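Ticket #309: bound-state structure for NAP.
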Amino acid sequence: MRALTFSEYGSANVLEVTDVPEPHAGPGRIRVAVRASGLTPADCHLRSGRFRDLAPLRLPHTLGMDAAGVVDEVGAEVTGVRPGDEVFGIVDVAELGGANAEFAVLAVWAPKPDALSWEQAGGAAGNVETATRALDRLKVGTGTTLLIEGAAGGVGTVAVQLAAARGATVIGTAGAHNHAFVAGLGAAPTTYGPGLAERVTALAPDGVDAVLDCAGSGSLPDLVDLAGSPDRVVTIADMNAAKHGVHRTRSAGPGADPQAVEGLAVAADLARQGRFTVPVAAAFTIENAAAAHRLSETGHAKGKIVLTI
Ligand SMILES: NC(=O)c1ccc[n+]([C@@H]2O[C@H](COP(=O)([O-])OP(=O)(O)OC[C@H]3O[C@@H](n4cnc5c(N)ncnc54)[C@H](OP(=O)(O)O)[C@@H]3O)[C@@H](O)[C@H]2O)c1
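RESOLUTION: The complex was predicted; output attached.
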């Protein structure tokens, strides 16, 4: 099958579409014929070698953590899903890839709602799981005032909507050109960077109850001040979190939190009700994946970058 791979670490130029053996669904897994899959910044870090000590890979490596497609193999012990069903889901996170390909084996999944296109569903699962895990950790619910740092990106756009659907009041930081976009997702927008505390206090005079950092831009000291305590802050992206007493949530590796798999069905239900969508920044074929990686590496994609087969 065709797959997006790399056989040496390096720039986006090392990416190549190659012919690799098809994977098959073992116990507890399903295989899908992929219609679209996601590109996350971690894929770029795996490819560049930035994660080579943290997460050594056997090269060549097939990229991609999540996908949507049509089920064509159902492993032993799997119930509730049949060949032909349309689903979206996440590969086994320990394998660190495999979704940017013609066929992918999923470890967690939910039925794809008609309200999400293939591209939207293909880029949904990883970010939905991540946002749900972080919002659960922060106990975000009705009445919570939540600040999301980096609200216009892949995870941020999803987190804003899921938090608003829980009944939270959401403030989201983004570049000024993305403020209308963030407001449309359900957050009061403001700009990140110097003066953040004053701007947030103007929007939330009684203060914020919780902060989700989706940017990892080094603002944790300010975010902790705003929340009043490091345990009211969760980051998905700041590798220096521990220095500030802040929890960095991740779903793989040492110190991982359990995956919030139920989030996929919750997001699918919200999509059916017209209360959740996946803003797609851009879609590229896997043959054009180098351009997709370069866009991700700008750090300013507006929503999710998706790859089609
Ligand atoms: N721990 C986990 O489980 C997990 C899971 C998924 C992702 N991640 C990590 O989380 C991070 C975000 O992922 P993503 O997919 O959402 O990335 P993304 O789609 O590239 O989004 C990045 C967003 O960050 C915003 N941004 C850039 N500079 C900023 C700054 N100084 N302050 C605040 N926001 C800023 C940008 O908004 P503007 O364009 O408006 O500037 C952009 O929309 C990445 O580091 C990724 O590796 C972690």
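RESOLUTION NOTES: The chain has two domains: 2-124+278-308, 128-248.
TICKET STATUS: resolved
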